[in-house]
């Protein structure tokens, strides 16, 4: 998070990345929604298709931590990993 001259905290803008060819927008939204249920208030950085039925959702939490959430094809969260700063 950044601080403005008035002392208010703002989130930095994340650039949009194109979706992988094997991941359509509807599926990406459903996968990201499942990941955000585990980390409310986080922002989606990107969604990756690791295999046909395994996805990795990269999130930035409200505290600025980077988290990768593993989601399977049934939209079940398998686990998550906090990345080092």
Architecture overview:
With 85 residues, this protein is an alpha+beta fold. It has one helix at 25-38; strands at residues 2-3, 9-10, 43-51, 54-60, 66-72, 77-82. The protein has a single domain (2-82), classed as SHC Adaptor Protein (2-Layer Sandwich), CATH 3.30.505. The protein contains 1 helix and 6 strands. The strands form 2 sheets. A 4-stranded antiparallel beta sheet has the order 3-4-5-6, with helices on one face. A two-stranded antiparallel sheet has the order 1-2. Strand 5 (66-72) and strand 6 (77-82) form a beta hairpin. It starts with a strand and ends with a strand.
Keywords:
85 residues; SHC Adaptor Protein; 6 strands
Beta-strand segment tally: 6
Percentage of residues in DSSP E strands = 35-45%
CATH-defined fold name = SHC Adaptor Protein
Strand arrangement across the biggest beta sheet? 3-4-5-6
Q: Tell me the CATH architecture.
A: 2-Layer Sandwich
Count of the domains: 1
Mean pLDDT: 84
Overall radius of gyration: 14 Å
The helix content is 10-25%
CA-to-CA gap between the ends? 13 Å
Oligomer: single chain
> How many distinct helices?
1
Run of helices and strands: EEHEEEE
According to CATH, what is the class? Alpha Beta
* Main sheet record: 4 strands, antiparallel
Structural class: alpha+beta
Shape: globular
The low-confidence parts are: none
């Amino acid at each position: 998070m950044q601080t403005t001259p008035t002392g208010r905290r703002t989130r930095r803008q994340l650039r949009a990345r194109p979706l992988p060819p094997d991941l359509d927008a509807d599926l990406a939204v459903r996968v990201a929604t499942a990941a955000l249920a585990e980390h409310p208030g986080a922002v989606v950085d990107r969604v990756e298709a690791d295999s046909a039925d395994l996805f990795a959702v990269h999130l930035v939490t409200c505290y600025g931590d980077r988290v990768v959430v593993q989601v399977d094809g049934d939209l079940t969260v398998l686990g998550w990993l906090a990345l080092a700063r």
